[in-house]
Amino acid sequence: MCILFISSVQHIIGGYRLIIASNRDEFYNRPTLSADYWSEDQDIIGGRDLEPTNVGGTWLALNIRGKFAALLNIFELSNKPNAKSRGTLVEDFVKNNTSAPEYMQQLNDVYNGFKLVTITISNSLLDIHLFTNIVQDEGPAMRHLINGVQGFGNGSYIKVTEGEKRFNGIVKKYGHSDTKNTLIKELLQLLKWNKLHYPDEELIKRALNHPDKDSQKPFSSVFVEIPEQQYGTR
Question: Within a domain: residue 219?
Answer without folding.
Answer: no
